[in-house]
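Colleagues,

For the teaching module next term, I've prepared a clean inverse folding example: a structure given as tokens, and then the sequence designed for it. I'd like students to try predicting residues themselves before seeing the answer, so please don't circulate the second half yet.
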């Protein structure tokens, strides 16, 4: 006789991560616990004296952001201390539902953190690339754009026109040519060899 499989939801805590249990496919480890990354059934696989906890989706895969992931988010509110965002994608995966997140002022840049001004880094509507930090509050992810490759990737000017990066700190409206401050991401195209490319957006 077999018991019914355990069904779990994305982000659900499954068990301790220790010498007996380790994270496997469809799960992730955070702060000493194993969590489900998918909606599906839990499987425990014995291998070399270790129990590997896996989750297999019975339907459409649902991913949740995990510590260290690069995510795509959209800014919707800015204050002097942080920018509130909705995480729309994890890596190359588009999420079925967004997750709330924020970028604190001290996590915008790697240097001169005390001189960072949120309104000169992001504006509501901006699409950013960011890295997920360790979770300290329930229900809210904290993000960092401190790395060169992270920051604003898509922005529109105050008049609603697309903007293009002209330096690491400015973007320019394609219609009015007005410049606005941003924390610009250095996006490296996958098909370009960095050694042969300019590797720079400065003009």
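(Answer key — instructors only)
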């Amino acid at each position: 006789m077999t018991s019914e499989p355990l069904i779990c939801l994305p982000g659900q805590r499954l068990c301790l991560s220790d010498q007996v249990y380790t994270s496997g496919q469809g799960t992730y480890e955070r702060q000493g616990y194993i969590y489900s990354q998918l909606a599906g059934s839990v499987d425990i696989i014995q291998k070399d004296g270790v129990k590997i906890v896996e989750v297999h989706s019975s339907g459409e895969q649902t991913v949740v952001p995990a510590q260290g992931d690069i995510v795509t988010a959209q800014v919707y509110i800015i204050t002097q201390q942080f920018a509130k965002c909705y995480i729309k994608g994890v890596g190359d995966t588009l999420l079925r539902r967004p997750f709330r997140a924020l970028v604190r002022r001290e996590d915008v840049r790697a240097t001169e953190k005390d001189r960072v001004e949120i309104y000169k880094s992001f504006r509501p509507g901006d699409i950013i690339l960011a890295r997920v930090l360790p979770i300290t509050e329930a229900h809210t992810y904290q993000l960092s754009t401190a790395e060169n490759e992270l920051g604003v990737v898509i922005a529109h000017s105050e008049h609603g026109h697309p903007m293009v990066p002209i330096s690491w700190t400015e973007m320019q409206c394609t219609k009015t040519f007005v410049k606005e401050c941003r924390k610009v991401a250095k996006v490296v195209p996958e098909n370009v060899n960095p050694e042969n490319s300019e590797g720079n957006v400065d003009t």
